[in-house]
Specification:
It is a single chain. By secondary structure, the chain is mostly helical. 82% of the residues lie in helices and 0% in strands. The chain contains five helices and no strands. Helix 2 runs parallel beside helix 5. The radius of gyration is 27 Å and the shape is elongated. It starts with a helix and ends with a helix.
Length: 148
């Protein structure tokens, strides 16, 4: 009896593996690929967002520093101008991130797959521009303050 069971085990294993190999029906493979592409684009957008959000505390710290510098110079508007301009650029970067976050439609309900792809590609451009503005405002301010 055990001989028959041991002979049937490999056959049962092969049948089980063959049943698992079917995957998605051929007609759904394009839909699955589109869905994966949408998920990938959404993840890329959020990765850029996360990179920018990691800089928010740096922007706030630098904003405080340039405001203090401009206030301490005070009487001479010419001397304070670079600090005031750096503060305005930091504010602009901060506001750009907040505006993008409030406008971003994470759910994308009611959109077709093609509309989702187009939306995410557009949002990738927008959030990349925001991130670049944030990085530029930080670099310019650090250079002004002679920070590393």
């Amino acid at each position: 009896m055990y001989k028959h069971i041991f002979r049937m085990l490999p056959l049962a294993a092969i049948l089980a593996l063959a049943a698992c190999q079917g995957g998605a029906p051929a007609g759904n493979s394009a839909a699955v690929a589109d869905s994966l592409q949408v998920d990938s684009l959404a993840r890329q957008v959020m990765d850029v967002h996360d990179e920018g959000m990691a800089k928010m505390m740096v922007i706030r710290r630098l904003k405080t520093r340039v405001t203090e510098m401009a206030d301490s110079i005070g009487a001479s508007k010419e001397a304070a101008a670079p600090y005031t301009q750096a503060g305005a650029l930091l504010d602009s970067a901060n506001n750009a991130m907040n505006t993008w976050m409030h406008a971003y439609d994470m759910q994308m309900e009611g959109k077709t797959t093609e509309e989702k792809k187009a939306y995410l590609q557009d949002e990738m451009k927008k959030i990349s521009d925001v991130r670049d503005l944030m990085l530029k405002s930080i670099a310019d301010t650090k250079q002004l303050l002679k920070e590393e």
